[in-house]
Each structure stands twice: as structure tokens, then as C-alpha cells.
Design a protein that fits this description.
There is one protein chain. With about 290 residues, this protein is mainly alpha-helical. It has twelve helices and no strands. The chain has one domain. Helices cover about 80% and strands about 0% of the residues. It is globular, with a radius of gyration of 18 Å. The two termini are about 15 Å apart.
Length: about 290
């Protein structure tokens, strides 16, 4: 039963992440400031989290809990800022494969902070995912690492992988719901600080169509945050981050359909290799 729940949570996380990226990209294409998009996203999540505060007693949590929560909040905010900046000009189907390297970063930090060690099948699965993502990535410009959007995406994946380890630590010390609440509020605080430091943008009125995109972004991002925490509670962080790379397939298809991105067949072939790697981790990696 737990395996089925894990699979369901992983699929929800994968789809919500891809849709969140689409809505964020649509907002930036419409000229919305990426830092402002990030702030509004976390602000809406904070509002949704308000009723949940009545179900958690924060007086029981010590300084160790708050240390990991704050570090996770900082890393998550920085990650999302870089992610939105990358989506502003980058292609979904090219930025997605880079994310596969998050599994390696998460696995390394997981070994030292969480003492989670992958077995041989887990390592094989991660290797397949990286190989498949490189196969997709190879369809891009060879000088792609010199592009700003690619550099932003790399920064995002590093901070996201580190955030994942801190989230797992917070979950161990509390619960999935507590982790979601803390991530939302701390994300709101740190994204507000980021807004003030790096832009003169203020709260503003926007047209109805863009308001819907903001709400849909927050909805998908919130679902992604909650399901991520649930999966981290029940799985090794390195394995979970690897399985999340299934979203690359969705990004490739959405990038082709919505934004007319090319090399569909080659990218889908790489995606198949990623699926094989993900299946290896899910079935044999425990």
C-alpha cells in the first residue's frame, strides 16, 4: 500500500512541477518580473497555510529544527528565483534535463547530513537518468553552458538539492504538514527580502488573465511542495530526486506543444532512458 501511495505522490509531484514551470514561463513571457513572480507565489502559499497553523504546536520545536528550517527556506527561495529567471528565456525541454544532476548533489549532501547511502541498483538508476538527460541535452547548442538561462538553471538545481536535504531533516524533526507550513512562510519572508534587495517592484494590480496564471502557479507549486515533503518522508532523498526527473518527459512534450521547441524525438528517446533509470530505483533501489 505504501508503495502505491509513494507512486501516486511522485506522479502528482512530477505533473505539478511541470505545470508550475509552464505557468511561471508564461508569466515571464508576458513581461512579469521573475523576482516578483517568486514573491507572489510564496505569498499565496502563506495565505493558504494560515488555517494549518491551528494544527501545529511550534513551541515544541528546538533551535536545531529552526536552523534546518531557515536554511531550507533560504535555499528554496534562492532556487525558485533562479528557476524563474531561467524559464524567462530558456526552453523547458532543455532546462529540464539539467535538473537530473540534482540527484547527485542531493545524494552527496544526503550521505553527509542524513547518512543515507545508495545501494548498487540506486547508483545504476541514477547513472541511467544522468545518461538519458545528457542524451536530451545533447540536442542543444554545444556552447549551451555559456548561456545565462542554463547557468541560472544550474544554480537553481544546486540550491534545490541542498534544500531537499534540509527539508528531509525538518520532516524527521516534525511532520510533512509542518514542513509545508514552514516552507511557505519562510519562503514568503525570504522572497520579500529578495524583492526589496534586487528590485524596486511593489505590489501592483494586474489584469485578470495574469492573475489566473499567478493562482495556477501557486496551486501547482503548493501541490509540488507538499508531495515532495511526503515522498521525502518515505524515501531516500537521492532516490526521490532521481524519480522526480520523470518530469523531464512532460517538460519535453509541453515545450514542444506550447512553446514550439524542436528535436522532439531525440529528447523523447533520452526520456525513455530516464524512465528505465527511475524504474530501477523504484523497484530495486531500496
Amino acid at each position: 500500500m505504501q508503495v502505491l501511495l509513494n507512486i501516486g505522490a511522485i506522479l502528482l509531484r512530477v505533473f505539478s512541477n511541470s505545470l508550475s514551470n509552464v505557468f511561471q514561463k508564461k508569466l515571464t513571457v508576458e513581461g512579469e518580473n521573475p523576482v516578483y513572480v517568486n514573491f507572489v507565489n510564496y505569498s499565496l502559499l502563506s495565505i493558504v497555510s494560515l488555517p494549518m497553523l491551528f494544527f501545529v504546536d511550534f513551541s515544541h520545536f528546538n533551535l536545531v529544527f529552526w536552523k534546518y528550517a531557515i536554511l531550507g527556506g533560504i535555499c528554496g527561495t534562492i532556487c525558485n528565483c533562479f528557476m524563474v529567471l531561467a524559464l524567462q528565456t530558456g526552453e523547458l525541454s532543455v532546462l529540464g534535463p539539467i535538473n537530473s544532476y540534482k540527484a547527485i548533489v542531493g545524494m552527496i549532501f544526503g550521505i553527509f547530513i542524513l547518512h543515507e547511502f545508495p545501494n548498487i541498483y540506486g547508483i545504476i538508476g541514477i547513472a541511467l537518468i544522468i545518461f538519458g538527460s545528457y542524451f536530451i541535452f545533447d540536442s542543444a547548442d554545444p556552447r549551451v553552458f555559456l548561456k545565462k538561462d542554463i547557468q541560472y538553471r544550474i544554480y537553481a538545481l544546486v540550491f534545490s538539492a541542498i534544500e531537499a536535504v534540509f527539508i528531509k531533516k525538518v520532516i524527521i524533526l516534525s511532520s510533512v504538514m509542518t514542513s509545508f507550513i514552514v516552507s511557505s512562510f519562510l519562503g514568503g519572508i525570504f522572497s520579500f527580502v529578495t524583492l526589496k534587495l534586487f528590485t524596486k517592484e511593489h505590489l501592483k494590480k494586474t489584469n485578470k488573465r495574469l492573475s489566473i496564471y499567478y493562482v495556477l502557479t501557486a496551486l501547482c507549486f503548493g501541490l509540488m511542495t507538499f508531495t515532495t515533503a511526503y515522498v521525502f518522508k518515505n524515501m531516500n532523498v537521492g532516490y526521490a530526486l532521481s524519480l522526480f526527473q520523470i518530469s523531464i518527459i512532460i517538460n519535453v512534450i509541453l515545450g514542444y506543444k506550447l512553446f514550439k521547441e524542436n528535436n522532439l524525438l531525440k529528447k523523447l528517446a533520452g526520456s525513455l532512458i530516464i524512465l528505465i533509470g527511475s524504474a530501477t530505483i523504484l523497484i530495486l533501489g531500496h
